[in-house]
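ping. complex inputs:
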Amino acid sequence: MPDLVPAIEAKPAAALPGSPRAFLRVAAATTAAAALIVAGPWVLDTYAVNLLVRAFFVAIAALTVDVLWGVSGTLTFGQSAFFGIGGYALAIVFSQFGFGPGEALLALTAAVGVAGVVAGLVGWLSFYPGSTPLYASVISLVLPIVVVQILYSGGTFTGSSSGLVGFESFDLSLENWFRLSGLAMIATLLVMWIVLRSDAGRVLGAMRDNDERCSYLGIDTARVRIGLLVVAALIAALAGFGYVGFGAVAAPENAGFVFGTQLVVMVALGGRGSLIGAVIGAIVIELASAYLSSSLPFVWELIVGVAFVVVIVVLPGGLLGGLRDLAGVVRRRVAATPAPVAAPVMLRTVQRPAAAPDCNDVVVEVSDLSKHFGSLSVLSKISFKARQGELVSLVGPNGAGKTTLIRCLADGRERSDGSVRIAGHSIERLSADRIVGLGLGRKFQAASVFETLSVADCLRVARVRNERPSFIEASPVLALPAASRAVVESSGLIERLGEEARFLSHGLKQALELAMVLALEPQVLLLDEPTAGLTRAERQGFADILTALVARDRLCVLIIEHDLDFVRLISSRIIVLHQGRIALDGSVAEVVDAPLVREIYTGRPVSDAGGASA
Amino acid sequence: MTFTRSLTALFAAAATSAILAGTAFAADPIKIGVPVGLSGANSVVAPSVVQSAELAVAEINAKGGVLGRQLALEIADDASGAAGAQKAFDSLVFQKKVDVLISMETSAARNAALPIVARGKVPYIYTSFYEGKSCSPHMYVNAWVPEQQVPPIVDYFTKEKGAKTFFLIGSDYAFGRGMLAFTKAYIEKTGGKVVGEEYLPMDGTDWTPIISKLKSASPGALITSTAGGAPNVTLTKQLRAAGVMLPYGNLAVDEGTAKSMGTDGEGIYLSASYVTGIDSAANKTFLAAMQKKFGAELKTPNDLSVPEYEAVYAYKAAVEKAGKTDSGAVLKALAEVTVDGPRGKITMSHEHHAALTMYLGQVQADGGVKVISSFANVSPGAQCPNLK
Amino acid sequence: MITLVLDIITTAAILFIVAAGLLIVFGVMKIVNFAHASFITVGAYAALVTSRFGLPPVLAPLVAFLAGGLLGAATERIVVRRLYRRPLDAILATWGLGIVIGQLVTLAFGREVQFVPTPISGTLALLGVDYSLYRLLLVPAALIIAGLFAGLMNGTRLGLSTRAVIMNENLAQGLGIDSTRVRLITFGIGCGLAAAAGALITPLASVDPNMGLAWLIGAFMLVMVSGGSLLTLGLSCFVLGGLQVVASTFISPILGGLTIAVLAAVALRLRPQGFARA
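pong. complex structure:
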């Protein structure tokens, strides 16, 4: 899905799992930066201090854009709207009620409250199952325009085109404003960094890389995105609150879409996804435009525009990413040391009570399932039951509707008619992530993993549904259920836990995806042509794993396959689909030699019973 | 964070502070800051304002400057709005450290700038006509306010054109609303009726629905007060394209803008404290000097640019009277000095505003303004009672 | 009442002229050209140059089309070509391009607002009201543009190739159609149309380096809702443009400006692929 997966760009800073050394480095850098901030006003002149106070607040807003866009993949032009809401809340309250501690509290509550409500509304509008990233961007574009028009139509209440001035605001000295805004920026950066490299923060990168896979791992991506938007909106509103509190002027330009796009430009130039890039981009652009716009009035904006285009087209990691890559090249030439390896990850097995060896409850029940596109009927009146301990192979020529059937089982909104029950619960019109919760795991035909995450992180994201991840820690221990661990060990992934998934071979990616799906501890496993592209040895290993899953763990496995030898080897039951209907449903012996199967596959009626087997 | 990344960050921070730590040192010339709308709505008139300032500075410097020091101009773009004004004023007051600010700007920009002027304690001479009642101990105004500009037009329409109903159109901001509020009150006071009052945002370009309302209201006269420059021109163009030929009083147009409207501008009534046709020796000398200095590049001097010229002279007089450029002393002296310029003798002694001679004129086909009548020494009324 | 109807029809025509170029690019290449605004500006300045050279005003849209077309083809070749697989990045890169073009225009012509003399002034007495003649003429102009484009698509070899590329680019390439050239020409035409639109609207507006921006969002939303069909674009311009005029007239002009953006966003929520048939 090219629209959902952006071109692979620089890996975000949070990709590498934590180690104590990283913590120390960060603590040192933070303390140094804080010290610079505190000492700043003694060294810099008034004008520079003035500019930097504003630049720091803008940098905080840019950080929220980076989290939404660089880290989780939602291009947003709308953070300026929340910035403006925060600023105008302060301006309106102080203009109407005057200045005082009570009024300041009211203004703060208004800023945060309005921003939160608007963000919730916008999130609900933009992120729903089936929405596209383009639509979310469109909404984020419309938001600041709407906010600005509302401001324009507010008469003297909002100051209309002129904005609000003349209200009394916080009486801090310029130096203390500098320290406040600078320290707030560093604190925001630090908190974001901690959260993004924590186990919970991995999910954001996973959503950016492969939203669909996340849904099929049981993560309600819409809800996560809405929550993220609300948090980002609150932070941007507070930044705007500070900005207007400092300047004592609220102008519609602070909320407009030109400012919103400037934030995107800052993040892109600095290096999207890296957090610190957003800060550097914001500060550099704010400072340079103030200093250079008088001496090079038109040329400065031209330079920014050209740099922006170049960065988008050629240097997706921004200037910072480019510098980093350059530094990496230099370091490798000079020191000949290998690139830093992530801290080792330890595996642990999740203990679960073993399944009763004979249990064979019905876990998949399909009645009269139909799917049609307009007048074209793809599936009609499919009915079957599948039990624990069964390994059912779905076979049939291309176009028979096999993948469509899998889709209808995994996503409650896909089918046109009929009912499906998974582990006893009807799936109604539930979305994919909810059905995962019922005990279903789906593995896709093309290996669907998280390209820029490490193997360990991919597995971690797969465990999110079963174990609430920490928002602070990046745990060095990875707990996997036995089946998943078995796949990791037997495929050789265990030696490559720290490597990014995009560097794996096709076979290993398939194994990784299987391990991820098994990490869900599903009762029902849907596999779509899992042996395509595997070597003979890999195929055998796969067969062993599946047989063990079915026999020992009492899973129910539905597998779409074309390799009939493989099917014959592992299945306990075969369902043959043809032109959207079930043609045969029986044991291996019954189906494999049936003349109907030969007829379906070759398209010819069979003339003699002694023909070569299919 | 990787080591390289934190190193780069620290390097960037250190480099930035090193660059910024080099502060500007005080220079010998007296610096006049001119923040003006080089971009945005005011960009049509801004070049003429800059030319006025340049001529005044050149003339004064040729005669030896002020208190033996030369004058220098620092021009900044306020983008005709509040956000841009903040940046421009910050730059002029805190970076360039000007001694005085003399300029014409939109009300949005002026309102945003006043807190910075107060913080920087820099004298500010506002040379633009505006909606009145803006007061600051640091600001003086040598251009007109509604009490001076509106009555001539309304009276003319009521008496000479027999208009009993008026339709008002404006830009939705302090100036547009302020002017029209005063106009409405004056119309009603003199027995007329306002049958429509419509506004577009300052950057709005499509007046179509408003023009349609105007036509269906069939008023006796139209009075508009848009932001200067582009909004004025788009409204007039669209009015003419729609065939509106009512008596049309434009409270915000100046001669330069009228000229650039071409034939669409013909017939517009304006009320101004300056028109190029003023028959005085001072004006003729001024126009000749402008022509000589700028030649083919000359932008028509107008009611927004000539006060700038006179304000520079007012500052010169105030500094000479105070004997120094110290802010407090200059501010006190500005209320007392008189400048004899193209608009006659002007003193900013009425609560930081000035009594002015007003001219009622009509735009001709060639873009020039024909003076219909003039009113001497019109008082600005009570603008800032607290600033006696 | 008649005035209102005429307002709606002429507004729809103007919106159509402005958005058509954007739609053509989106329909064929599936990317959004955010530099569209700056091409509108380029067209307006082309009209300015035409009037300065003393050429008859009726040539202005043609000069603008050529200028915009050449500039558009150049930008496709240099920048846009690399971004077909990254639609969100294409939005950003074209936005950046728009900034660059805008700044180049500013450098060449200065920041001030300039004016192009109105080629046709006066009103026409139509159905009992006096209505701006120039606005009325934009309706046939819109129809001519639509007609020319339909003729191009349905009556020429290039049009056939383009339709093939729209439906299935891989197959078209496999059949020997140079899809790269089709894209180049399409982008050029789309930008040329934007420039022509800019030249056509200058008599009703002023000419300054940022004038195109006001049209960008409205055009963008209309194109999104129309989903790639020129006919649907015409309908959307009529419906949404009409609602905008009604809102501006009866509620407030300030909130009226919101109408297109908000209604289009809601419509897209209901039907994300737009409303084009098939």
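The first strand of chain A starts at residue 164 and ends at 165.
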